[in-house]
Give the backbone structure.
Amino acid sequence: MKILEDISLAIQKGKARDVKQLVMEALEMGITAQEILDKGLLDGMGKLGVRFKNNEVYVPEVLIAARALNNGTEILRERLVEEGVKPIGKVVIATVKGDLHDIGKNLVKMMLEGAGFEVVDLGTDVSEDEIIKAVQQENPQILALSALLTTTMTNQKVVIDALKEANLREKVKVMVGGAPVTQAFADEIGADGYAEDAATAAEVARSLI
Amino acid sequence: MKILEDISLAIQKGKARDVKQLVMEALEMGITAQEILDKGLLDGMGKLGVRFKNNEVYVPEVLIAARALNNGTEILRERLVEEGVKPIGKVVIATVKGDLHDIGKNLVKMMLEGAGFEVVDLGTDVSEDEIIKAVQQENPQILALSALLTTTMTNQKVVIDALKEANLREKVKVMVGGAPVTQAFADEIGADGYAEDAATAAEVARSLI
Amino acid sequence: MAHVFKTTAYTNLEDFVYGKALKPVVLKNGMVIGGGVLYPEINFTLPPMLITKETMSDVMRNYRDITTGICERAKELEVPGFVAEIETLPPMTENPQWGIEVCKTVVDIIKEYEAKYKIKGAVRITPNDIREGKELEHMWRGRHWDSILETFEGCAMTGADLMAIESVGGKETHDEAVMYCDISKSIFALSVLGAKDMEKLWTEIVRIGEKTGAVASGDTACGFANTAMVLADKNYIPKVFAAAVRVVSAVRSLVAFEVGAKGPHKDCGYEGVYVKAITGTPISMEGKTAACAHLSHVGNIAVCVADLWSNESIQNIKLLAGMAPVVSFEQLAYDCRLMNRAMETGDSLLLRDLHADSDSYYDPQAYVLRPDVVLEISKELVKAETHYERGKRAALLAFEHIRSAHENGKLRLDERELSWLDNLSETVENLPEDLEEFIDSVMDDCENLDPEKYDM
Amino acid sequence: MAHVFKTTAYTNLEDFVYGKALKPVVLKNGMVIGGGVLYPEINFTLPPMLITKETMSDVMRNYRDITTGICERAKELEVPGFVAEIETLPPMTENPQWGIEVCKTVVDIIKEYEAKYKIKGAVRITPNDIREGKELEHMWRGRHWDSILETFEGCAMTGADLMAIESVGGKETHDEAVMYCDISKSIFALSVLGAKDMEKLWTEIVRIGEKTGAVASGDTACGFANTAMVLADKNYIPKVFAAAVRVVSAVRSLVAFEVGAKGPHKDCGYEGVYVKAITGTPISMEGKTAACAHLSHVGNIAVCVADLWSNESIQNIKLLAGMAPVVSFEQLAYDCRLMNRAMETGDSLLLRDLHADSDSYYDPQAYVLRPDVVLEISKELVKAETHYERGKRAALLAFEHIRSAHENGKLRLDERELSWLDNLSETVENLPEDLEEFIDSVMDDCENLDPEKYDM
Ligand code: B12
Ligand code: B12
Ligand code: SF4
Ligand code: SF4
Ligand SMILES: [Zn+2]
Ligand SMILES: [Zn+2]
Ligand SMILES: [Zn+2]
């Protein structure tokens, strides 16, 4: 449908105001919120994500599109609830204890949101206790852990062990990442997923649920 | 005693003929084989070992001294048995399966012999089965494993696991080494000792028995 | 009182070369940095492990082994001298006694080798700046601030020769700037917040230097310009943005020298070339041999005016030849041998220019490190009076030089970069004259900034 | 029929420089090795892991990731071309289908990048020589021999551009020679056993080249000269011995060219400089950037006449910047940029000599790699008629040049080295004229040698 394509394009161009306008029009035309979300907003983010992965657009462009996306979903929110539509999944994300690097984590968050996930960001330097508490409260499908230091990456294992202790390990998939982390390390500590960059992280997250 | 000092010096200079001569004289003088061995032959090797570690002599010099040492112990052998003297320990050494590097292993062997160990050398590319068999037959205090390839170092763990299987792990201390091996790797696979070079290997071996 | 540099120390391109600085730094053991020899500066860090009370003996073993390995290789290769940098990791600054213990371990081994084999080595201590995160009370008082200063003083007393830091004043704001490529916010973070913090912090470091005899050396804008560089290298942000941030960051890093730092400026601050041009103090730089720590587009050009040549950082893990820090050290030593040989034969300017010309066409971040460009920009930069004006001018000068280089076929830029170049220049041109007005216009939009921590 | 080189290809020191060879090698994709550009040659190996049927998918993933990482970086840095060397590990030669599969994986990715982004890349396949150990039946027939040739042919068919090996004929004997610093046995192992094996082996490789279009490139005397170099570097054996072995090893490595190899000679064979001097074919060399694989005393001088510049080998492990092979590749790329820039500006001879002079004073192993020394020794070497005579002469020439350099203050040698120099020279001077007599005098003492495997 033309209007959904227009929404998708407006997202890709990061035009928050146009997105707002078009989403309202689409609703008036009687298109379901679900369809507007999937074929308009998320379609746009998805296409931009591909272009990001191919080095055709920069992060600020994706961030601006993500803002536009938020604008759009804001309007849809009520209707989505009415229609009983749920986000495709919920992710709790954090940089582990002792580690203050957050740029990588923020990019992962951005791409996850762009892929339709609801993301709860606990910030940086988050202890295993805080993470456990958040998992209990938020009940996410996925826990995503970032670490940038060779002296903190081991804390990803600490969190996984704490999950086991708390009998939560089976309830949540764990994804790990960050510059020093490798697939081999992820395997070794018993994580369910690993990705080298933010775009791949979103793909891996989708494959995990 | 002067003659023991002379033996020690002759060893250090690698003078096989002199060593032979002097050892016979010492025996005639009524010095025990034990004393000739410890304060003459092994003393010489020990001193040369220190100079080797300090980069004052080269490998060929040590090898030639080792030959002289053999000459000396050859003569003492019977008397040592009579006196009930045993070598300070027995070592089985091998380069693990898939790996043909033997220079490092040979140097370790040389330094172990110089330190008074009896060494059984299984050669290179030795499977875990062959090693187990040798441990059963030779009953050594120490098993020394060398590996030079990142793709064979893991076989050091394979051997340790096979020892456990065969209920031999408690009977023998395992030392590992070779260029890619580290103390951390040694700890990880449950080895008892690690050394970075041949001179240190002899020290570690002594500390293990 | 802060001394603002109003002229450049270097006026002649022929004098502006690696291994020689107008104001060399003489160390206790007689090594002269910037005195005619390019020395390696080796950096290292722990392999994957936790740092806790329980692992402390293992931590110390690592530092001991690293230092011994390096000294041994220095002896083998007859290196004329070297600097070892210790960048503490967060727990070592939070528990200053740990950081000081690490420093002592390294210093003692180096001194032992110096006594035994006449290997000349020096230690640079770089406490990591822990003034970040949820628990930070204030930038200039409280637990975090105290720990940093305690680490400096303790390490200086234990024998460290040089004191450096990669301070983070303004970084919370600059992170946002980088992600959105917001050049106004970048200028605000660097030349307002950063400069303000630098002045406070470096006044203290200089004081500790006077008290202990350690040299207050310099402060990298890593959290700013290198973050941008790494993101640009991943194609996450435009290179012209990262190049401009680099030049703007010089304004911030200079502040240490305005309050009394003496150099050598720290390795990972590529803006050091501007610091050297303006102050005449020696600098450390890192390039291709630091690829172990981050890939970059300035592998060769980085050495052009360096006085120390660094690998930035490498974990203590085993490579085929041996431990990685030793490997890095050997690579640095050979690079320095070549450069020093050319110094002896009188070919240093030629070698400098070969290095510069080999990189500068391919990337604007390399282009703004060209010795000729650095001198030209520096001469203009020092004409501006305030840090804010300098910040603006730095960005504009970078954009101008990049644009004209591109027009003259001296620099390749693709379409995407060109359109960012236009937008960014326009933004800077339209920034207000007045500082207060500028601050008002930017600060509201700074989500992560807590002005009270800066007494604002 | 084997062609014995009676003159050197190079007569003029001015022509003998990196990046240019008298007989360049043109690859299928148009890359010309020795045609005026120095290219990086990147080598890599697996991280700690076993190679079995079960781990094969992981093995392939490693090679895929390595190759993709390198191609990406080649694109980013706009490298004008590169060679990727695959040295198979033993299980991959024992099961040729594995080696061929690895080769195909690497070739396919490189071709994909060439098609998509015009990145020029070539593959050198180096099956490891498995003719060692207890189960070996014969050097030139049986399972081991067949597997090697099968790996060559399979990889050539799957798209490998260059074929190389580090063959081990005579190595069992040379190992003894090295440990005892027995120069006679070294000459026997290299110029008798080694030369004999090389002739058989390379005749086959050249044949496979003719059949498949892959280039028969060259054969490193690694198991000989690099073993000596590594031991000398650890101070286990004298450096003058290792230096002489290097020159003698040229006699062996030349045999490949006598039966039709075309170059580029393999990276880790530093004797390649002699091969280039004599044959005019291009060579690969490795120096400081190969410190990851082994430390050495020839970090700079190694590049003087190189046509490919290599890192020798690095495991696929993670460094702070990213995977280690990518890091190594970036370092090589910058080295090459510098050298190529000097070629453009006409400064290549100067840069060559700076590299040579920076190393050659410190170590005899570096000294015998000086371009001037290489040319002089080569000219004398080719006058000897047989491999044995050449072997003897190579050692003597090395000793002479080392001694006179020392006497003229151009090379530093300590006392221990000098006394070995005297003893070793004397030994070689007293070797018999007659080959049979020589063989008789040495062979008895060769514990590990089984002459039947060599049809002797
Ligand atoms: C010489 C050598 C060879 C010779 C071996 C000769 C021989 N008879 O041993 C030859 C040419 C045959 C060879 C073959 C190969 N090699 Co090789 N080889 C080397 C080289 C250059 C030196 C090794 C050496 O002898 N060092 C000197 C000795 C004294 O040191 P060391 O072995 O480390 O031993 C000391 C310590 O480690 C310790 N130690 C050793 N063992 C033990 C045991 C115990 C219990 C203890 C406590 C201590 C200890 O003490 C020793 C003395 O101080 C290294 C390079 C390097 N940097 O190490 C490559 C190297 C080990 N080889 C390598 C490779 C790839 C190979 C081949 C696969 C090459 C090929 N593609 O064909 C084959 C493999 C053959 C096989 N199946 O094993 C790679 C390994 C890469 C990897 N993935 O792991 C290396 C690292 C070279 C490189 N940089 O790429 N190699
Ligand atoms: C920027 C930076 C900083 C900034 C951080 C700013 C910020 N807000 O994050 C500052 C200056 C604060 C900083 C501080 C420090 N840093 Co720092 N830093 C860097 C640098 C230059 C870039 C990191 C970055 O942002 N990269 C860009 C992002 C996009 O990449 P990324 O984080 O890898 O994330 C991507 C992927 O990894 C993945 N990913 C990330 N997280 C996750 C999570 C999941 C679940 C998944 C699936 C994927 C995923 O997707 C992301 C996007 O594609 C690196 C160098 C480098 N080469 O990485 C050093 C580096 C990480 N830092 C280092 C060090 C040493 C420090 C300090 C200790 C320095 C010091 N001594 O003071 C402090 C530590 C502070 C602390 N407690 O954490 C070292 C680490 C060395 C080590 N031992 O491990 C590095 C490697 C630099 C170096 N070469 O030495 N640093
Ligand atoms: S570039 Fe590296 S050394 Fe410098 S501040 Fe950044 S992380 Fe630290
Ligand atoms: S030097 Fe390295 S690459 Fe060459 S043969 Fe030896 S081990 Fe192999
Ligand atoms: Zn640094
Ligand atoms: Zn090699
Ligand atoms: Zn190689």
